[in-house]
Amino acid sequence: MYKNILVAIDIAEDDIFGEGLTSKLPPHVEYMADKTHTNVHFFTVIPFFPNFASYAREYDVLLDERNKITDKALSKLISITKIFNINPANTHHHVKTGSPIDQILRLSTDINADLIIIGSRQPTITTRLLGSTAAAVVRYAKASVLVVR
User: Fold this and answer.
1) Domains of the chain, with CATH numbers?
2) Distance between CA atoms of residues 33 and 40, nearest Å
3) Pairwise CA distance, residues 82 & 30, whole Å
4) Strands 115-119 and 4-8, how do they pair?
5) How many whole angstroms from its chain centre is CA 6?
6) Which of 44, 94, 119, 128 makes an SS bond possible with 21, Cβ 3.0 to 4.6 Å?
7) pLDDT in tens, the chain (149 residues)
8) pTM of the model
9) Residue 30 and residue 36: Cα distance in Å, rounded?
């Protein structure tokens, strides 16, 4: 049914392997990906790298630091996704820098995602006032979205 599934994961979550939100994703992802040759794209976003930093004298140092952070994020993402029981030949890992909402929507278009799976916590005052990433993805995505709580 689905050819490309995008799974957004917050690697900064405190308790990934315990009772955290990410630990609730595997049954849903595995069920949806269980069908024939579904590509599962695991994805995380790291904080935005400010444009003004490109004007600094130490730009090369900052760029090197950003690359190290991206590599570390990719390693952590790969480590986290080992809890998913999915054929490794059908998994892909992506790390982007910027706004989570924008990057999720952009990657979903780039990979032609049929389904986006994203976790969401119970709403707090902040998310009620400012909105959550999951709510924005549901609102603006062109693909179907499965929100896991």
Assistant:
1) 4-148 (3.40.50.620)
2) 7
3) 12
4) parallel
5) 8
6) 119
7) 899 999 999 888 755 555 566 778 889 999 998 766 899 999 999 977 666 555 666 666 777 888 899 999 999 999 999 989 999 999 999 999 999 999 999 999 999 999 999 988 766 655 555 558 888 999 999 999 999 98
8) 0.85
9) 12
